[in-house]
Amino acid sequence: MPPTCDVLTFGETMLRLSPPGRARIEQADAFAVHVAGSESNVAVALARMGVRARWVSRLPDDGRGRRVARSLAAHGVDVSGIRWDAEPGARVGVFFVEHGTPPRPTTVVYDRAGSSASRLTPGDLPESLLADCRHLHVTGITPALSASCAEATAHAVRTARRLNKTVSLDVNFRARLWSAETAARTLAPLIERVDLLITAADDARLLFGADGGDGAAVSGALRARFGVSAVAVTLGGEGALLDAGNTITWV
Predict the structure, then answer these.
(1) How far is residue 133's CA from residue 127's CA, in Å, rounded to a whole number?
(2) Which residues form a coiled coil (predicted)?
(3) What is the CATH number of the domain that holds 68?
């Protein structure tokens, strides 16, 4: 049977709590609640474009977890692969966003340690799940969450390649989660297996020493080092580029 999913991705999605307007957290009597996560954001964007996207994670089997699942499903994301966590202490990661008013900057406070998603294991991504997709998308955030998440990410990439699936990886380096040295050491063997590498130019320089005068030099250095078919480099206010070897497309 052909796959029922075009793109599968997995990782942590958290609850984002924000005081109304420009209020301070310490002054707030109420918070707006949204869901946010790098991988699930990709799934939502794809689903809204008509792509069959599936998001997998571990969530507590309670109202917090169902809030995340319901929000993603409302955008058309397939959430049938969620692993529901009934263990004592199961939780959803939370972060608070306090919008600033100059000269006070916007402040973000994370409370994600020990979340259910941080306990993802290779067993949460069985071969049958990966076989039922055409493409696997992973990020550098998930393996930064825990040793078991790193194992799950490596397992997913290896299995997808063995099943002849295409794979993309977004470096998405988060200094709050791990060091540049650990990130580079963990991600390098995964990047060697992917078809599409996505990275900010600054992350490529910091983690892999991919430097140069412009984004094309960065992408060229990454393609040469890792043998990746295509590299997308984001350049902040200068936009982004896609280097497919024979052609470079600027956006």
Answers:
(1) 10
(2) none
(3) 3.40.1190.20
- Is 209 among the domain residues? yes
Is residue 237 one of the residues assigned to a domain?
yes
Q: Is 107 a member of any domain?
A: no
Pairing mode, strands 32-36 and 196-200: unpaired
Query: Two tokens at 38?
Result: 């790098």
Q: Is 215 helix (H, G, I), strand (E, B) or coil?
A: helix
Asked if the peptide bond before residue 103 counts as cis, ω within 30 degrees of 0, the response is yes
How far apart are alpha carbons 170 and 138 in whole angstroms? 6
Give me 68's structure tokens. 């995340």
The pLDDT of residue 243 is: 96
Does residue 193 belong to any structural domain of this protein?
yes
Q: What is the pTM of this model?
A: 0.95
Per-residue pLDDT reduced to its tens digit, 10-40: 999 999 999 998 899 999 999 999 999 999 9
